[in-house]
TrEMBL record:
Residues 1-11 have a biased composition (Low complexity). This is Uncharacterized protein. Residues 1-31 are annotated as: Disordered.
């Protein structure tokens, strides 16, 4: 499509069907201000969540635990507890690594760590519920057990080989 500009500021061109087309270019006379780059409202924050930006998509968490490590530069015998993760890779089943909580995001995504920690929390809560139920059952069984007198205990002991 070829076009030329006339004296009124309108762009004249030849359309697809061979006819002339005329469209007005925006100007201050038309009431449409010219665009000035950067003159609009400020852009909002980007809301896109990238889950595996700097991490290895093939790594996964096998286990997590706390380990006691010495304090660097401290007095002899000073230690602190550090959370560590034991990692594996789907593409290399024999590859394993133990990394600190500070470096785990270099290997797995934040979502993976969050899901792992949520699973640990849920398993711990289930274990506590099971423990409390067992403790209540044992307490009820002790309450229901008959109380043996001294003579009854002697009789039971006498029957033992």
């Amino acid at each position: 499509m070829s076009s030329s500009s006339n004296t009124t500021g309108a762009v004249v061109g030849v359309g697809v069907g061979g006819g002339d087309t005329t469209r007005a270019s925006p100007s201050a006379e038309d009431g449409i201000p010219a665009y000035v780059p950067g003159s609009g409202p400020p852009l909002g924050a980007i809301g896109l969540k990238l889950s595996r930006v700097s991490s290895d998509p093939l790594a996964y968490i096998i286990d997590s635990f706390d380990r006691v490590v010495p304090i660097d530069g401290g007095l002899a015998g000073q230690t602190h507890v550090e959370k560590c993760y034991y990692l594996g890779w789907t593409n290399d089943p024999m590859r394993r690594a133990m990394v600190s909580h500070k470096a785990v995001l270099d290997y797995v995504s934040p979502d993976t760590v969050e899901q792992w920690e949520a699973g640990i929390t849920e398993r711990l809560a289930a274990w506590h519920r099971e423990y409390e139920a067992e403790r209540r059952r044992a307490s009820a069984a002790l309450q229901a057990a008959p109380v043996l007198t001294r003579s009854a205990r002697r009789a039971m002991m006498a029957r033992l080989p």
